[in-house]
Amino acid sequence: MSDATGPNQENGEGLVAHLIDHFKKEWQLYVMLLPTIAWLVVFLYKPMYGLQIAFKDYSIFRGISGSPWVGFEHFETLFQSEQFIRALKNTVIISFYTLIFGFPVPIFLALMFNEVLNRWFKKTSQTIVYLPHFISSVIIAGIVMTAFSPSAGIINTFLGWFGVEPIYFLTKPEWFRPIFIGTGIWQEAGFQSIVYLAAIAGVSPTLYESAVVDGASRWQMMWKITLPSILPTIIIMLIIRIGNILEVSFEMIILLYQPATYETADVVNTFIYRQGIQGGQYDLAAAAGLFNAVVAFVLVISANTISKRFSRTSLW
Amino acid sequence: MPGVRLDGIVKKYGAVQVVHGIDLVVEEGEFVVLVGPSGCGKSTTLRMIAGLEDISGGSLTIDERVMNSVAPKDRDVAMVFQNYALYPHLNVADNIAFGLRIRKESKDKIASAVEEVAGILGLTPYLERRPADLSGGQRQRVAMGRAIVRRPKVFLFDEPLSNLDAKLRTQMRAEIKRLHNRLGATSIYVTHDQVEAMTLADRIVVMHDGRIEQIGSPMDLFLNPANTFVAGFLGSPPMNMFTATVVAGPNGPVAEFHGQSLELPNLDALEIGSEITLGVRPEFVQLNDDPNAPGVKVDVDLVETLGSEALIHATLNGSPFVIRTETISRAPSNAAQQSFTIAPELLRIFDVETGVALPGQEVAVPENAA
């Protein structure tokens, strides 16, 4: 016969009593927490209920609970679909290049801003590089289309000075990825550098003073003090970035791609959009979305574990 | 030979002048402590010597070379900071080696220098640890290791023990003194802690409001403070000071205050009828066994027993008056009133208006205490 007042139960009661006691003392903090919890429940946890349609033959008329289960049928369809495999391949390639080329840029920008001594120049250049972040993706896409236009675009005009024939950049699959990745870097690198600038601001000034007395140059201080000091922030940002690796900027792709560039431009999210929203295959789109989420989950866990083991820095 | 020489050093931030023309000569191998309350300009002076602050006026000479415009790295100084300034991403060995690596010394030289310094400071078992895995005292030793590994001409210490607890501070104080005795390098040490100043210094420089108030050996400053500021700053508890009037007594001048009196030393500068500020060190007071015996009477407020000694907090005509007394041979009485005497030559007499000590009352510093 089990003891109803065993240690576990006592511990449990102790914890509840402790929580109640804590709530009474700090109720204001819990009240402040409520909106965030409500947001998480409504927008992140409740929609998870709908994930089950990835395993059902979903019909709007029968509803989620009324639709019959089909197991992994949609996943089989996805992996037999050339379009999905192409979208997955493009997602991985674009994400990989964005990570390789786009991730270091904000770090370099922050390091450079930190070295600028003239306050006016520093503020002006920071404003200029932050600005694209605040411009709507539609306008950014418009700017890109104009810039790469074969008739009046600045790029083709420039190339024309050297006798190069106009290139139809946005209709050529081989140019889509560089233009898309470059646009993303131009739009977000400045704003992303704020995180690193904040981390740099947290480095103790005495570390630099001590290095100055030791004879370090500004260059040496940047490499030997600033960069290692913000490394934990860099790693945290990298883990977050890896978690979002399959989340390629959906709006920008939709705005810039066209059937001629699907070969290199179509990604999982645009595939989901076309199949799910335009084609009405919500169950197939949900399966693709779930696959995306599971891969992201595995990636973020792996990145966090690796980081914890090798650099002592981790997200949790 | 002077190791460091400051001639009329001035520091201004815009229109605000924080250091007002400091003159100081630190001899080679000397340990000089700059002491004073917060905001007195001691750290600013040290940072000007290090090259971390520009010098607004005057001249700084290190090893007979004017250093005003010389970069910090070329001054051959090393600095130990209050918050240690250790690189959190480097282990102890790499922290110590940092300065040598920056100067592109050979790997062998760096390895042997780190090993030697770690041995001196007892850091050998911790060379692979990062600063976060060390205690406060160990971190401070690493900071000192970083300084001594380069064998600079001058060591600068900016309140290096302020972040340590009292027990560790006492230990580290002794270690710094031992290290200085061993290395014999010119050292300039900034602190607001007078105990650190008294125990470490060959000479103390007392600063106040960006000016030097007095320079001298610890005992000289303790026995012969030049003014009321130094008298009140050095000594724990500080010197008791109160106003008195000089009157003629049967054996010479006498200080009279609120119906009580104390015999004064015979000084030429004393004028009968003038007002003086009288300074009485708490430890120079001789308590009478009988509270009603002739002497100055104080009303006891509180007795703090510290172990081998006790502090009697009393009031003398309404003003606070502290007496330090030993407890082993004579337990402090709990009587509501105590009476004391003091040898006239142990009194310190200051001008009541300027606060400057009257001339002719210097007490000889015992030779072994200088």
Plain-language structure description:
The complex is a heterodimer of chains A (316) and B (370). With 316 residues, chain A is mainly alpha-helical. Chain A is 73% helix and 0% strand. Chain A has one domain (77-311): MetI-like fold (Orthogonal Bundle), CATH 1.10.3720.10. Chain A has helices at 7-25, 27-45, 63-66, 73-80, 82-102, 104-115, 119-130, 137-147, 154-161, 173-201, 205-214, 218-229, 231-243, 250-256, 262-265, 268-278, 282-311. The longest helix of chain A is centred in the C-terminal third of the chain and has 30 residues, at 282-311. The model of chain A is unreliable at 1-5 (pLDDT under 50). Chain B has 2 domains: 2-231, P-loop containing nucleotide triphosphate hydrolases (Rossmann fold, 3-Layer(aba) Sandwich), CATH 3.40.50; 237-352, Nucleic acid-binding proteins (OB fold (Dihydrolipoamide Acetyltransferase, E2P), Beta Barrel), CATH 2.40.50. Chain B is built from 8 helices and 20 strands. The two termini of chain B are 20 Å apart. The model of chain B has no long low-confidence stretch (mean pLDDT 91). In chain B, the strands form 4 sheets. A 6-stranded mixed sheet of chain B has the order 6-7-8-3-9-10, sandwiched between helices. Chain B has a 5-stranded antiparallel sheet with strand order 13-12-11-14-20. Classes of the chains: A mainly alpha (316), B alpha+beta (370). At the A-B interface, helix 11 and helix 12 of A face strand 6 and helix 2 of B.
